[in-house]
Design a protein that fits this description.
This protein has about 325 residues and is mainly α. About 70% of the residues lie in helices and about 0% in strands. α2 packs antiparallel against α12 and α5 packs antiparallel against α6. The two termini are about 40 Å apart.
């Protein structure tokens, strides 16, 4: 150590380090791959167990193309042929397509929550300085998290067939007519990717807002240098911010995607035709159908799983 070197107070050193770590270019090498997969898969399983009935209700409301005029009408939309059944039968009727839902939800959450950090690492190593120069440190880091989320969201269309089958079982079970999974795959082939373009168009801004809203909250509400060091409560609040932004931004395209996917296999309809019919018959407000129940019911679901993933990934990284 140079005896003539100036003595710098530790508090200033800490501040200097904190300033440096806000750079997007430094935001990589955070968690192991095993921790990312395990934490995100656990989030998907937990969400499925708790929220599958809520998802069914939201999908059925979005698929309804008539105005709700009474409580009995709402009851028939949600519970379909079980609208006059007992409470227990009504509840169990909200679990159609659970097998498809389990496969889709666990893979989706593992891919999205576990995959975004890999995309973020790639951007940090190769373009981190560019994000800092374009947006400034802090904002550049948050924008990089959002961009990584958008990239992963677009790639999510690889899981589209499972999503299609899940939604059809929830909203249009007669489309199956006794056919099993492998028979449907054989019969429909690439038709199971119908609506892939609309799904990608919905996922890109939705995932951008999810991860971006979460990152901006950590950056500017809690002033966190290392996002992984957020407390359990902080993760909950930032997950709520990201989830709310994501649902609002993606709502119109989500309605279109759902209507494309819940059609009978032999009677598909293009997204643009659906848009024209919605504008003609239901008005602009139809693009936000189901948004209120999504914010009230699906919002907590997304917040919950994102919260669990953000909490468990660092935890597993430190303990496995």
């Amino acid at each position: 150590m140079d005896k003539n070197a100036p003595i710098v107070p530790s508090a200033i050193v800490g501040t200097m380090k904190g300033t440096t770590t806000h750079a997007a270019a430094k935001d990589y090498k955070k968690e192991s791959g095993a921790a990312r997969v395990l934490g995100s898969a656990t989030a998907g399983i937990s969400e499925l167990i708790i929220f599958h009935p809520v998802d069914t209700i939201a999908k059925r409301l979005m698929s309804n193309q008539t105005k709700l005029t009474s409580t009995s009408h709402l009851n028939s939309v949600i519970f379909k042929e079980y609208s006059s059944a007992s409470v227990v039968q009504k509840f169990t009727s909200l679990f159609p397509g659970l097998g498809y839902a389990a496969g889709y939800k666990i893979l989706q959450r593992t891919y999205k929550y576990g995959g975004q950090p890999f995309a973020r690492e790639y951007l940090a190593r190769n373009y981190g300085d560019s994000f800092d120069r374009a947006f400034g440190k802090g904002t550049g880091k948050a924008m990089m998290h959002a961009t990584a989320g958008s990239i992963v969201g677009i790639g999510e269309i690889i899981l589209l067939p499972l999503d299609v089958l899940k939604i059809k079982r929830q909203t249009n079970p007669e489309a199956f007519r006794g056919r099993g999974l492998f028979r449907i795959i054989k019969d429909e082939g690439m038709g199971l990717y119908r609506g892939a373009g609309w799904t990608a168009a919905r996922n890109a801004p939705g995932s951008f807002a999810l991860f971006g809203g979460n990152a901006f909250a950590k950056e500017y509400i809690f002033r966190l240098e290392d996002y992984n060091k957020a407390t359990f409560a902080q993760n909950g609040i930032t997950s709520l911010c990201g989830s709310f932004a994501s649902l609002v931004v993606s709502a119109p395209l989500d309605v279109i995607k759902t209507r494309i996917q819940n059609r009978n296999f032999e009677n598909p309809e293009s997204g643009f035709k659906i848009v024209r019919k919605m504008l003609k018959n239901e008005g602009v407000s139809s693009f936000f159908k189901g948004l209120t129940p999504k914010l009230l019911m699906t919002g907590p679901k997304l917040t919950f799983s994102f919260w669990v993933a953000q909490t468990l990934i660092p935890y597993f990284n430190n303990h496995i």
